[in-house]
Amino acid sequence: MMQTVEVVLDCGMGNQMFQYALGRSLATRLGLPLVLDVSILRRYPEFGFDLGHFRLGQQQLRDWPYLFSRARIELVRVAASLGLQAARLVTEPGLLFAPEILDVDGPCVVQGYWQSERYFESIAEQLREEFSMIRGQDPRSAECERHIRGVSSIGLHIRRGDYVSSPDCNAFHGVCPREYYDASLRLIQSKLGQDAELFVFSDDMKWARENIRYELPTTYVDWNQNRNYEDLRLMRSCRALIMANSTFSWWGGWLNPRPDKLAVAPRQWYQAPGVISDLPNSSWLVTL
User: Fold this and answer.
1) How far apart are CA 222 and CA 160, in angstroms?
2) Among 31, 118, 189, 205, which residue has the fewest nearby CB atoms (within 10 Å)?
3) What's 103's DSSP letter?
4) CATH 3.40.50 fits 139-287, yes or no
5) What is the largest CA-CA distance in the chain?
6) What is the pLDDT of residues 242-287, one digit of tens each?
């Protein structure tokens, strides 16, 4: 096996960004090439290689048939356990930060979600550059971003999709209640003043238009269907952000370069009893 750090990508943009961030952190520390395995993404039509919208660094893509790739990963696990090769399979021990992961000392295949900024805080500025967009904006989004930057803008993200349609996802993730958004908006307006403007982002804009209505100027950003990278670019430009329990909106807050940014997150990230996330513990966040 090649002397590399190999990351297995899975799920949507927010999760892929966390997976890439850990892989880049390990590869940078170890001085090894980074490989991104996209075979899982090819199996599920709802996913795609969303990282292709970013500048990224130097890496290789591995796009093999799904079953072949899964068999290869199992072979790595067995071979490493028998001491037959140097590379090891590193799997996520749980949702909370596991500091021992950063002590990996050689070639590896990493598989998991890695949803903690502590995995990559040592290369934060490098990642901010690598997660810059390589695509130009369409005129409507460019005009919207200019407006966002010129006013006391508040981004508000609604995450529904499979959080609502899938009973299993709903039981595990849940959705943020209206009371959370009400309290978050009151908090932000107390700091920004009453002349703020609201920009709503959602994967279910019909629901958002019908249910997210406040007494302040509101733009429903509904023209970026199948271009989630454009929503992310606009979201991270907002003066303040009310995020959902979503890795996508978490990155919208983290990527905002403003030192005076305001970002609010739900304290209870997962609805499932006893399941705790590292994400609301970020020092730049206010949790409600």
Assistant:
1) 15
2) 31
3) G
4) yes
5) 65
6) 999 999 999 999 999 999 999 999 999 999 999 999 999 999 999 9
